[in-house]
Amino acid sequence: DAKTTQPNSMESNEEEPVHLPCNHSTISGTDYIHWYRQLPSQGPEYVIHGLTSNVNNRMASLAIAEDRKSSTLILHRATLRDAAVYYCILRLYNAGKSTFGDGTTLTVKP
Amino acid sequence: DTGVSQDPRHKITKRGQNVTFRCDPISEHNRLYWYRQTLGQGPEFLTYFQNEAQLEKSRLLSDRFSAERPKGSFSTLEIQRTEQGDSAMYLCASNSPAGFSGIQSTGELFFGEGSRLTVL
User: Fold this and answer.
1) Do B45 and A98 lie within an 8 Å CB cutoff?
2) CB count, 10 Å around CB of B51?
3) Could you give the 3-state DSSP secondary structure of residue A82?
4) pLDDT digits (tens, 9 = 90+) for A16-28
């Protein structure tokens, strides 16, 4: 599996935008970039995914570099409820197995 | 609630005992996954099923671990002769592959809240 690299931790102030980076330099042409987040004592929750173009949904935006070797999850206005571990993973179309790294722990300060 | 359901949520057992976890996926999903997560780490893939067929198993899944999905609906994960190193959160997820009949799928995984195992 292609690997992703994320910073261990990041901090943000409440109501400010947050940019969570992910490097995936060995990404293949058929890998989709998925983001999940995990709140304490809960299972991971899907956030967003994309292939080549930037994507927006109600939770976040995903900006994908032109060479696809990196991506950034953007939370437009962080709230205290956004404090979680964020995972960036690569999934082949219709893949079974997915490999998670250790993610980025986001702390949101009031 | 129509999400992925796992039972029990917490299990404390003594070393050497057997434990079984159950996962009920979202009803229209034909794929079911098991992951294990230890404190401070991301989820590690264990195995997955498409309908009742177990399509892939991780090398992490030792002989003491067995997973079944007999009717293609719920699944069980059994750990025999538990060891302290088995203490972890066991996560179940489900989805359907894109193109599966009648299902709009983007390949996202839907996780349950997990079953936390503590082996004393």
Assistant:
1) yes
2) 12
3) helix
4) 999 999 999 999 8
